[in-house]
Amino acid sequence: MKKIPMRMCIITREKLPKKDLIRVVKTIDGIVVDTTGKLNGKGCYLKKELEVIELAQKRKILNSILETNVEESIYEELKAKIN
């Protein structure tokens, strides 16, 4: 049986399979939505649910975790990826 990589959502604190989450990464070029899950840089995971993305946007939790100002366009891109 193959091991399933598990990661924790920063909003819900649930441990979920990596494929059920979206990764946001702080790279040298800025903040990026990582669709491959393999980009270098400091990253965090969000559950693929609209409510979770909106809560992260409202609380500005990505700003504190990634230690930078996250643009609104990143949240819009996240919402587009889950639909």
How would you describe this protein?
19% of the residues are buried. Strand 1 and strand 2 form a beta hairpin. The protein starts with 5 loop residues before the first strand and ends with a helix. The strands form 2 sheets. Strands 4-3-5 form a 3-stranded antiparallel beta sheet. It has helices spanning 50-59, 61-66, 72-82, and strands at 6-8, 15-17, 21-27, 30-34, 42-47. The chain contains 3 helices and 5 strands. Helices cover 33% and strands 29% of the residues. The protein has one domain: Hypothetical Cytosolic Protein, Chain: A (2-Layer Sandwich). The protein is an alpha+beta fold and 83 residues long.
Sheet/helix structural class: alpha+beta
What is the domain tally? Answer: 1
CATH topology: Hypothetical Cytosolic Protein, Chain: A
Radius of gyration: 12 Å
- Poorly predicted parts: none
Shape descriptor reads globular
CATH top-level class: Alpha Beta
* SSE order, one letter for each helix or strand: EEEEEHHH
Task: Give me the CATH architecture, please.
Answer: 2-Layer Sandwich
